[in-house]
Amino acid sequence: MFMYQPLFYFMAFLGQMLSIMSSSWLLVWLMMELSLLTIMPVMVNYGKYLTLSCEVTMKYFIIQSMSSMWIMLGGYMLWDLTTGPGVFMLVFLIGLMFKLGLFPGHFWVIQVVSGLKKLPLIFILSILKLAPLFLMVTLNISVNIDLFSVMGVMSLVVGGLLGIIQSTVRGVLGSSSISHSGWMIITIMMDTFIPYFLAYVVTLTMFLLVWGKNNYLASMMMISFSGLPPFLLFYPKVLVFSMLVENSMWAIIVCLVMMSVVSLYFYLKSSYSLVLIRILN
């Protein structure tokens, strides 16, 4: 199994790349399923945490399978049968919400993250979200902007509130993922999605690389998730705020500022914990 892990990771990444390059929604769906099926074998930790990793892998498979079913049903009715937007558009969106861990399909994220190794964690929280997010970019043209705003803001609120009660680094990463997924929906509305997504992937990857090896640096990377200057996520967030100001979306701006303060609190708390663990050891 271990010798085939690079192949599984490559196929999961390839599935996402082929998905965003496909011109047919059905091919997009098939490539997302390829990524799902090839990431599952590497989610299992063949060590002392075998039982936990098997449990979270099964949870992830069930949730993702349900969301794939809804995406297939909604996509078939919308594009193959040319049914007008309405209930089937909502079904399609619900499937994407569960794929991405957006509110109200966020409940699986923290539970799954708690039992994963570092590399599968990077894939689950970032790379495997690429194709569903590009589908969201496509839907942004035809979906009411108020619906996108509610999805993004509610994910920010839920992610921030869940982050406050987390006591583990993985729990904080899961809450952060929900919150940043909300940010990504806002960036899709403002056409600034790609810079934000790239900054998030780089920040997440750098944190997981140094976590457990250099906790001082890991604590700094944890704070970088908040988007404080001069960290990487600060610049795409400034771009988002400038676009929101140009479009006079003041209600969304107020919500983003308030939840950014809440998120900063639990990032600082987790960062302090990392430094304290380093000092005590």
From TrEMBL:
NADH:quinone oxidoreductase/Mrp antiporter transmembrane domain segment(s): 22-205
Organism lineage: Eukaryota, Metazoa, Spiralia, Lophotrochozoa, Mollusca
Domain of life (superkingdom): Eukaryota
Membrane topology term: Multi-pass membrane protein
Membership in a protein family: Belongs to the complex I subunit 2 family.
Reactions accelerated catalytically: a ubiquinone + NADH + 5 H(+)(in) = a ubiquinol + NAD(+) + 4 H(+)(out)
Keyword field: Electron transport, Membrane, Mitochondrion, Mitochondrion inner membrane, NAD, Respiratory chain, Translocase, Transmembrane, Transmembrane helix, Transport, Ubiquinone
EC number: 7.1.1.2
InterPro entries: Complex_I_Subunit_2, ND/Mrp_TM
GO cellular component: mitochondrial inner membrane
Single GO MF annotation: NADH dehydrogenase (ubiquinone) activity
Any Gene Ontology biological process: mitochondrial electron transport, NADH to ubiquinone
Parts forming coiled coils: none
UniProt entry tagged with the keyword Electron transport: yes
Primary localization: mitochondrion
EC supergroup of this enzyme: translocase
Listed name of the protein: NADH-ubiquinone oxidoreductase chain 2
Subcellular location: Mitochondrion inner membrane
Transmembrane segments: 7-28, 60-79, 85-109, 121-141, 147-165, 185-210, 216-235, 247-268
Record carries keyword Transmembrane helix: yes
